[in-house]
Design brief:
This protein is an alpha/beta fold and 696 residues long. It is built from 31 helices and eleven strands.
Length: 696
């Protein structure tokens, strides 16, 4: 009979917790959210032996369980609630071999909760180079646990760790620090008031500001039995607890840890002096971004052309080989072109995630956070705000969720409000197709015009975010304290497995999420474009034949399709908004694409692919169809002026209903997301108008 164990992975940020999770679970992972909150929840399965499976949960990184953020409160709530389905049978606390002292604070807290706890010391392969030696038997004896030395980079120690997990029941549950020693009378009263309850657990429930479930609060619901202390007194006791724990940790490490600095190589500090330099640091970061954007265009060109031709071929096959009828038209003109409009951009999106993952894996991203703190303070943000702003290049939704580690509500709110200005991966398909259409080939200082244009779009989004943040800082009358704490991890060579899993998972999530929306919208658009009201639509062929009797049969067919589209339901809707968008250089077809892309920005390309396929079923590629689109005045629709105006519009507009939903969730009010929608739309319209008028 098979058995299963719930195993919680805990650790400070940048200790390799997620790397260990990836090494143990591989592709057997799923991502969800914790009940009632939007914080990401990662779970995975690992077969420990022939009869036992481990269900691993990768908890948010935390320095201690004295929670100061929502992410940390989630950790505490899980560890205190035995009725939670994810409550761990045992905990793995991952520690960095170079930062044992700080990492062991969390370890002692977890162990004092009575949960069997294994200490996993990661990056063991670095010990010799860093001049570090550990007396494992002494450490195991004093910490009353089992210790696993692992290296996720070299994939060592994992089998030994699995054996320790299988034998977790032998690990002592005895507390390492006697919590009552910091105030004997207070804790004696607490213990007497609630007999049979774990003392440290009671203490945590008292001290936490997190919103624990009712089952937890019932433990201390009868306040008549116990008189707690004031907040200031509680804080004082917490400080005493922390000092007590570090005294214990110091005594442990004095016996079990030796560092020979003479034999260590200090490459890190030399590199840091350059990468976080107040001048060279910014220059290097800017150069890295330039290389990334150049590569996104250069490397993805061949696979994108291949995918585009494949979907063109599929449309042709469906149109020529399936029986004529509504279903064939829907498939060849609606579904296949619509899906092709998003799949074509998988290479660019995958490359973007690849570069971001490499920067994170190397430890460089933390340096960027530290570097940016100096400048962001001037705009009312903290260094921690750069994490949402940079992760917003992938998707604004998890980026906004990540603001939860910003302790100051004012800084957090401002970060939430300005993050959508950061160019996300959903905008990338729009930018990519428009840049390819309107930006000429050529190079400046070794960088292509197309890559420079993409860099410019990312840059203006970021600069606008800073500008709006400064305005909000000076106008919002919200008082809140702020502080900035960040750890600079060691530099590491990226693990191919971690990078691959990240790229695969995020690209898959993007395609699956966007694909569902695009499929639904493609079907709806095809229906609206294939049917219409009145005689103009129903008698389109007769009207065109009478108007153009001299034209050949093929030309009559093309003009008929175009005329029917203009008089279809989607054409009526598009032409009704055309007067509003004409000053921006757009026609009614672009207007329809803008409206539908509110569901998701990337739908823009799929919408135009569907509309042009209905208008003209010559099975040409979407890029060629857009390139040949002509205005009523005979000029190309997509030229430098209109294309740039459209890119500017998407750079500043709030074209994502999912982002609005998550802003409402995080702020607990419709005031802020609706304000975002109104302001960003007006701003985008105004700047796009100026852009078109100047360039045309």
């Amino acid at each position: 009979m098979s058995k299963s164990l719930n195993i919680a992975l805990l650790g400070n940020p940048n200790t390799g917790k997620t790397s260990l999770f990836n090494s143990l679970t591989g592709l057997s992972q799923k991502v969800g959210n914790y009940p009632g909150v939007t914080v990401e929840k990662k779970e995975g399965i690992c077969k420990l032996d022939r009869t036992t499976k481990g269900y691993f949960i990768d908890l948010p990184g935390t320095y201690s369980i004295n929670s100061s953020s929502i992410d940390e409160s989630i950790v505490v709530e899980l560890l205190l609630n035995k009725n939670n389905k994810d409550y761990p049978d045992l905990a793995l606390v991952i520690a960095d071999v170079e930062n044992l002292k700080r990492n062991l604070l969390l370890f002692t807290q977890i162990k004092d909760l009575g949960i069997p706890t294994i200490l996993v010391i990661n990056m063991a392969d670095q010990m010799k180079r860093k001049g570090i030696s550990l007396d494992i038997p002494i450490l195991e004896q004093t910490l009353e646990t089992k210790i696993a030395l692992v290296s996720t980079r070299e994939n060592t120690g994992l089998e030994e760790l699995k054996k320790l997990i299988l034998n977790y029941r032998i690990i002592s549950n005895k507390p390492l620090v006697q919590i009552n020693s910091i105030d004997k009378k207070y804790f004696e009263n607490l213990e007497n008031a609630f007999p049979g309850q774990l003392l440290y657990k009671l203490w945590l429930i008292i001290t936490q500001d997190a919103n624990f479930g009712a089952i937890q609060r019932t433990l201390i619901s009868d306040i008549s039995k116990f008189q707690t202390k004031s907040k200031s007194e509680i804080k004082r006791l917490q400080q005493k607890e922390t000092i007590k724990r570090y005294q214990f940790i110091n005594s442990v490490l004095k016996k079990g840890l030796q560092i020979d600095k003479a034999s260590a190589t200090d490459f890190r500090s030399k590199l840091d002096r350059v990468l976080i330099h107040k001048f060279w640091g910014y220059l290097i970061f800017f150069s890295i971004l330039m290389i990334i954007f150049q590569s996104i265009f250069s490397w993805s060109e061949v696979p994108m052309d291949f995918i585009d031709n494949c979907f063109n071929y599929l449309s042709s096959v469906a149109s020529n080989n399936l029986p004529s009828g509504v279903f064939t038209d829907l498939l060849s003109q609606g579904i296949i072109p619509g899906l092709g409009g998003i799949v074509i951009f998988i290479p660019q999106i995958a490359f973007l995630f690849l570069f971001l993952s490499i920067l994170e894996e190397t430890g460089y991203m933390s340096r960027v956070v530290f570097l940016m703190d100096r400048g962001l303070r001037r705009f009312g943000l903290s260094g921690k705000s750069i994490i949402p702003l940079i992760s917003g290049t992938a998707c604004a939704i998890p980026a906004i969720m990540s603001t939860r580690n910003i302790e100051s509500w004012k800084e957090r709110l401002i970060t939430i409000l300005v993050t959508p200005f950061t160019t996300c991966s959903a905008r990338l398909p729009v930018y990519a197709i428009l840049i390819a259409l309107v930006i000429p080939d050529g190079y400046f200082l070794g960088f292509s015009y197309k890559g420079l244009m993409l860099m410019f779009l990312y840059l203006i989004g970021f600069l606008m975010a800073l500008g709006i943040a400064w305005i909000l800082t000076t106008t919002l009358s919200i008082r809140s304290k702020s502080y900035f704490v960040i750890e600079l991890p060691n530099y590491k060579i990226p693990l191919i497995k971690n990078v691959a899993l990240t790229v695969w998972g995020k690209t898959k999530s993007f395609v699956e999420g966007a694909g569902k929306i695009i499929l639904a919208i493609s079907i709806l658009l095809w229906i609206l474009a294939s049917y219409g009201p009145g005689k103009n639509f129903n008698q389109a062929e007769n009207i065109i034949q009478k108007k153009y009797p001299e034209l050949a049969e093929k030309e009559i067919e093309l003009k008929t399709n175009s005329f029917k589209l203009e008089n279809s339901y989607v054409g009526v809707l598009g032409r009704s908004i055309e007067p509003i968008i004409t000053p921006l250089g757009y026609d009614w077809k672009i207007g329809i694409a803008i409206i539908t892309s509110f569901a998701a920005r990337e739908v823009f390309v799929g919408t135009l692919a569907t509309i042009y396929s209905v208008q003209n079923d010559d099975n040409d590629t979407i890029k060629n169809k857009m390139a040949s689109e002509i205005r009523k005045d005979g000029k190309l629709l997509f030229n430098l002026a209109s294309g740039t105006s459209l890119m500017i519009f998407y750079a500043f507009a709030m074209q994502c209903m999912s982002t609005l939903a998550v802003v409402k969730k995080e702020t607990n009010s419709w005031k802020w997301p609706l304000g975002q929608l109104f302001f960003m739309t007006i701003l985008a319209y105004f700047i796009s108008f100026l852009t078109y008028q100047i360039l045309s």
